[in-house]
Amino acid sequence: MNWLTTTQLWTILSDPNLWSGTLREATPLALAAMGGVISERSGVVNIAMEGMMLTGAFFGFVFTLLFSNVAVGLLAAIVTGGIMASFHAFAAIRLRADQIVVGMAVNLVALGLTSFLLFQKYSSNSLTTCLPPTPCTKGQLRTIPDWTVSVFHLDQIPALGSVLFQQNPLVYLMLLIVVLTHFLLFRTTLGLRIRAVGEHPRAADTAGINVQRLRYLSVILSGMLSGLAGGYLSLAVAYGFSDNMTAGRGFIALAAMIFGKWTPFGAFGACLLFGFGSQLGYSLQNVVIGSFQVSPNLISTLPYVVTIVALAGFIGRAIPPAADGLPYDPAEAG
What we know:
Order of helices and strands: HHHHHEEHEHHHHEHHEEHH
Radius of gyration: 21 Å
CATH class: Mainly Alpha
Helix content: 55-70%
Number of domains: 1
Number of helices: 14
Strand order of the largest sheet: 1-4
Distance between the termini: 68 Å
Shape: globular
C-alpha cells in the first residue's frame, strides 16, 4: 500500500496556508463554542447553535446587501441569532420543555425559514457577491477584507507572518472573545453566578440570585455569538449565502465545547483541532499517493471523523455542570 512520502507530508505541514486556514476554519466554531460554554455553564443545553448560525449567516448577508454596509450586516447577524436564542430560552426556561427537543426544533425552523425566504425573495438557493480585491460592479457588495498587520513588519515574519498577521478582523475578534469569555466566567462576580446557577440553582436561588434571568441572559448571549459566527461565514468566508451553508458547524462547535470540558480555552483548542482537520482535507485534495488520487468526497468527512475520534477516545470522562439540561422552577424551591 502506498502512503504519503516524507517529502509530501513535509510540504503539506510546512505550508503557511494550512495553518492560516486552520485559524480561519476554527473562528466560526470558536465563536459558537464560546456561546455554548456560557449557556451550558448556566444550566441550559444549547444544541440550537446550528440554527442560530444559519439565521445569522442569512440575515447578516441580506442586511449587508440591503444597506450596503457590512457593520449593519454583522449587527443583524448578532441580533437575529439572539432572537432565535430567545425562543429557545423561553421554551427551555419558562415552559421547562425538553431542551434537546426544543434545540432541534429551532434548528429545523432556521433551516426552513432561511430556505423559504431565500427562494421567495431571490428565487435562488444561493446569493453571491464580489470577492476582494476584485472591484465590485453594480448590484454587488464588497464584504469583509483581510487585515495585514504591518507594524514592526510583523507580516514579514517567515511563516508566522501570513498565519498570524494577515487575517480577517473577525479572527482577531474571536481571539479576544475567547479571552473575555474566560475572564467573564472565572474572574467576575457575574461569571461566578452563572456557574452557580448551572451547578446548583436552588442554592443560588436561596442566596438571592435570579436563576431564570441569568439563564435567559446566558442563552441569548450564546445566540448572539452564534449569529456572529454565521455572519463571519457569509461575509468573510463564503462572500455569499447558500442553502444550509453552516453544514453542521454548530454541532461541531457543540462537540468542541464538550471536548474542551466546558472551558473557553479548552473549547478553543478543540476548535483548532477540528479546524486543522478541515483545512488538512483541503490540502490533501491535490495530493496523489502513489497512483491513488485522494477522493474529495472522502476528505470532506475528515473534520467529522476527527470529531468522533476525539470525543470517543481522547478526552476521558467529560463531566458537565451538575444542573446542565435540568429545568428549574422557582416555585418548587420553597
